[in-house]
Amino acid sequence: KPRPEWIATEEFLSRVVVHPDHALEQAIRSAAEAGMPAIEVAPNAGKLLMLLVQLSGARRILEIGTLAGFSTIWMGRGLPANGTLVTCEFLPKHAEVAWANIDFAGLGQKVEIRLGPALETLAALEEEGREPFDFIFIDADKENNSRYLDWAVRLGRRGATVVLDNTIWEGAVLEPDMDPVNAPGIIDALTLLGEHPRLDATVIQTVGSKGWDGFALARIT
Ligand code: DHB
Ligand code: MG
């Protein structure tokens, strides 16, 4: 799906501007070696997450969908010394690979991986009465996108940042028959972002190694 020039340009931008380091490259390699899908955020998107964490001054991050920890490491690097990150992962194998990567990146003291269905973890986090989150990144099963957005509003503080990955899905937002499993969840989430009384949102389209896709950026009001 991605055009060769999009991939080449992304590689150029990575080399000239983004500069992913050894720990991030190792995270990609370990995922491939473990037979995991190469569906992590692109390096330029990962660095955007880090910069958004820094620009917003976030101290407490919630991530839904860990995979091999690539975005986890980018966001974790944006945290101050006393910052923390909770990341939700469904598959034990993914969590195991991610933990090795996060620890190798020097973030073992800041990051907590919660294993299991994210909807259960999110309910548990509320039960635990934790301090509200400052920054929430949603990048998991697309069918639950709207439920994850609702949880983000419940668990985030006023003024918190919410980022939702995969908002264009190769144009399936206009042609849901392209992917009847995932497109409805993505479209529902976009509708909710536009209508939710406590969310102000925009959506950016992207091209690159991940094809034609995009992300939503929202603020909890
Ligand atoms: C898929 C999931 C993602 O989060 C993504 O960014 C790209 C692809 C997938 O499930 O295919
Ligand atoms: Mg994604």
Secondary-structure blueprint:
Layout: H1 4-18, H2 22-33, H3 43-56, E1 60-64, H4 70-77, E2 84-89, H5 92-104, E3 111-115, H6 118-127, E4 133-138, H7 145-155, E5 156-165, H8 183-195, E6 199-208, E7 211-220
Parallel strand pairs: 1-2, 1-4, 2-3, 4-5
Antiparallel strand pairs: 5-7, 6-7
Helix pairs in contact: 2-5, 3-4, 6-7
This protein binds 3,4-dihydroxybenzoic acid and magnesium ion.
Average pLDDT taken over every residue: 98
Bound molecules: 3,4-dihydroxybenzoic acid, magnesium ion
Count the E strands. 7
CATH 4th-level superfamily: Vaccinia Virus protein VP39
Please count the helical segments.
Answer: 8
Terminal-residue CA separation: 37 Å
The CATH architecture assignment turns out to be 3-Layer(aba) Sandwich
* Percent of sequence in beta strands: 15-25%
What's the short version?
The protein has 221 residues and is of the alpha/beta class. The protein has helices at 4-18, 22-33, 43-56, 70-77, 92-104, 118-127, 145-155, 183-195; strands at residues 60-64, 84-89, 111-115, 133-138, 156-165, 199-208, 211-220.
